[in-house]
Amino acid sequence: MRGDWLLTSFWGYSDSARRRQSWNLLRDLASMSSDPWCIIGDFNDLLSSYQYTWFKSLGTNRALEERLDRAMHTHAWSLMFPEARLINLVAATSDHSPILLKLEHEPYIQPKRSFRFENAWLLDNNLVDMITSNWPCYPASNIPQKLKYCISDMEAWSKENSPNFRVAANKLRRELELIRSTHDHLSDATVSIVQNKLSNVLLQEDRYWKQRAKVYWLTDGDKNSKFFHASASARKKRNAIKKLRDTNDVLVEDQSGLCNIARDYFQNLFVLNHGDHSPIVATIPQRVTDIDNEMLTSPFTEEEFRQAAFSMDPDKSPGSDGLNPGFYRKFWPLFGREIFEACCSWLEDGHFPPNINDTNIALVAKVDRPESMKDLRPISLCNVVYKILSKVLANRLKRILPTCISNSQAAFVTGRDILDNALTAFEVLHYMERWSSQPFSGSGVDYARGSLVGDCFGFLFMDGGNLVMMVWVVLVVVVIIMMGLLLVVV
């Protein structure tokens, strides 16, 4: 913390006869405090000739430029802000150029521009035709490599053909008005062509902002680009992480410090703890029958993969490769069979190709002004191929979960509410407080770390388990979490 300091916004007398009074006023102000002090404003006095902040009659023979606006500071203030800079900006109409005082040097961080598929592109027949014609030319029987080639082609296409929708729409409107101003516009076939182009551009803009707004409840209706734009802007502002507190409760605002806090938090959170799991497994009664195992290990069908792909909203966020579910749903007739065969091959071999399970971690704020990593919820943005494969396995597990999960388990079960157990706990405590004359206490089990899940799955993969073993581990974790939801000690 640098401590307190003073900032004074100053406007000096424009009358040259009173300029000495301006400086005397500043001297009097300086004698009132010893705190670090900075003055910024229009001094209306000439101290140097560079850089100019005021001009008069530019473009004429009487043109005049002077430096009237500046910032001045005490020595103590300069020691407090050694990297402070005064920047001369550009004004549109005023005869004074605005000045910007930056207290610290902010190094420019080049944003990582990665490919992101836009659902608005699906309305352009040129892109659809390009992908349809190029896909058979990519290397056969290698889905990850074919997707990389397709991404490269779409990225090159987008640089030349992806328009600024607002500019394109205004251009088409002007063109349409020009055609309508002619006398024979009713018989001009160009009118309908331009109208169709304008409608398509407006629809593309609507898709563009809808994809960013993440408004999944609106499925059809009039174009709502303004609404989607406002929703996307509010969402971006809400999810921006500007400051966090580290383990020492120190507020950190610089980008590198924020990255270090997030990295250290997750490294300490997800740590594999080795232990003996056999006592836990021994307490779990057998629920998965031989018939269930036969169903779980039966051959997969292409329809299972298609249902998994189409169960995802097309506007869902993409993974590290930049492809979202909308891309796969659009071109599933083109390469759905290849994805199905590739995923079945990976499951049979027990190995994924490199980078197929790469995941981006996004932090979503749980409160309005997050200041701690506990105020942020991590969301895994997996590649869609990996999500399709995971959904296929999850859909099979759903068939047997009703026979394995107790009725008291309310979280993450279809048709049940995660708040049911919280309400039950509240009612139990309320009953005990009202009718019990003896002191009592309650304790909750915190599963925020998820270490139990990590330990169990680590145990699974270290021992080289198969799909049936994975089902057993999932059931063990579900039952243990269910048992720990509420623990009341009287």
Please name the defining characteristics of this protein.
catalytic activity; membrane; 490 residues; mainly alpha; Endonuclease/exonuclease/phosphatase domain-containing protein; Endo/exonu/phosph_ase_sf; transmembrane; two-stranded antiparallel sheet; single chain; extended
The CATH C-level name of the domain at 6-102 is Alpha Beta
CATH superfamily of the domain at 6-102: Endonuclease/exonuclease/phosphatase
User: Which value, in Å, is the CA radius of gyration?
Assistant: 32 Å
Distance between the termini: 48 Å
Number of helical stretches of at least 4 residues: 18
How does this structure look, described?
One of its GO terms (molecular function) is catalytic activity. Residues 10-96 form the Endonuclease/exonuclease/phosphatase domain. The chain crosses the membrane at residues 467-489. Keywords: Membrane, Transmembrane, Transmembrane helix. This protein has 490 residues and is mainly α. Among the domains are: 6-102, Endonuclease/exonuclease/phosphatase (Deoxyribonuclease I, Chain A), CATH 3.60.10.10; 163-240, no CATH class. The protein has 18 helices and 13 strands. The chain has helices at residues 19-30, 75-80, 125-134, 143-161, 165-180, 190-213, 225-239, 255-269, 278-282, 290-296, 302-310, 325-330, 332-349, 384-398, 401-404, 420-435, 451-462, 467-484, and strands at 6-11, 37-42, 54-56, 64-66, 69-73, 85-88, 99-102, 244-245, 251-252, 359-365, 376-382, 441-443, 487-489. Strands 1-2-5 form a three-stranded mixed sheet. A hairpin with a 7-residue loop joins β3 (54-56) and β4. α17 runs antiparallel to α18 (467-484). The longest helix is centred in the middle third of the chain and has 24 residues, at 190-213. The radius of gyration is 32 Å and the shape is extended. The two termini are 48 Å apart.
